[in-house]
Amino acid sequence: MNLLKRALTAAVLLPLLLWLLSCSPQYTLGIVTLAAFLVLYEYGRMVFDADANAKANAIGLGVIGGIFVFATQCASAPQQIVFLLIFLMIGFLTIILFGGRYSVRDFERFSAALIGVFYVAPALGTLHSLRSYGYGRAEGDVGFAFCVLVLIVTFTNDTTAYAVGKTVGKRKLWPSVSAQKTWEGFWGGAAGSVIFSLVFWWAFSKNNIFSFHLLLLHDILWVALPCAFLAPLGDLLESRIKRFYGLKDSGAILPGHGGMLDRVDSLLLTAPWAFFYVYFLR
User: Of all helices (H) and strands (E), which one includes residue 181?
Assistant: First the structure.
């Protein structure tokens, strides 16, 4: 039943996401800004769970994350670094300034919340930067192709790892962090994401779908192979955070998937790698 819910949710949301990504980078900026708000709201509910103002603090953290993404992505590349440094400085100065009025536990919550902003917001922002790559070029929209490739690698890794782990999984991958994940699922997800990426690239480039004809074989391998291992690492990282706070899911907004953070946890590592490859190695 859970697998069916996951499939139905993906069947509804994935076409909508692809359509919004295909429109323009401005739509992508709107998506990642909203995603940053929702993800950090869920993260804030975990961090401030025992706090009397947990919901208000979580909303505030989500707003900060959304503003962070929007502001940095609207700036040029050098200004983004300046924004990042200023934001970091303001955050730590705020902790120092007001930390004396609260308990050590409050100080820890605030610090964890600030870490969450830098865990989520810059990674999601790289999706907008990736979408903007080569936008408007006469030969085609290569940034859109890379965005689709990252989504294919990430989501097929999660799906095939889940299916293989449920079917033949026996050896636990890291039981103290995630009781369900197995080594069989890990290798099945890695192999599945690479194979599916190559299959989609062949089929899409052949039929000129999603601008995949602009990507070469080495583009697929440079993105798919590292992301095949980064995707489960991102999943384990989020599982570690949830285990620390004693939670199974970060939320319940997506049937079969849990919360938004549960859905984008792998993307928080795969998208930055694709961005790094496209802008610095390609």
Answer: strand 178-182
Q: pLDDT tens digit string along 189-227?
A: 999 999 999 999 999 998 888 889 999 999 999 999 999
And the tokens for 235? Answer: 């999943």
Chain mean position to CA 169: 25
Same domain, 13 and 148: yes
Identify whether residues 123 and 105 lie together within a single domain.
yes
Q: Do you know the residue count of the chain?
A: 282
Q: Which two tokens mark 55?
A: 């919901």
Pure H helices in 48-182: 54-74, 77-98, 104-132, 142-168
Domain boundary among 134, 160, 186: 134
For strand 172-174 and strand 178-182, is the pairing parallel, antiparallel, or unpaired? antiparallel
> ∠ at Cα 223 (219, 228), nearest 5°?
145
Q: Are residues 205 and 96 in the same domain?
A: no
Residue 140 burial (10 A CB sphere; 0-12, 13-18, 19+): middle
Please say whether the beta carbons of 66 and 35 come within 8 A.
no
| pTM strictly above 0.85 | yes
- Token representation of residue 250: 């970060």
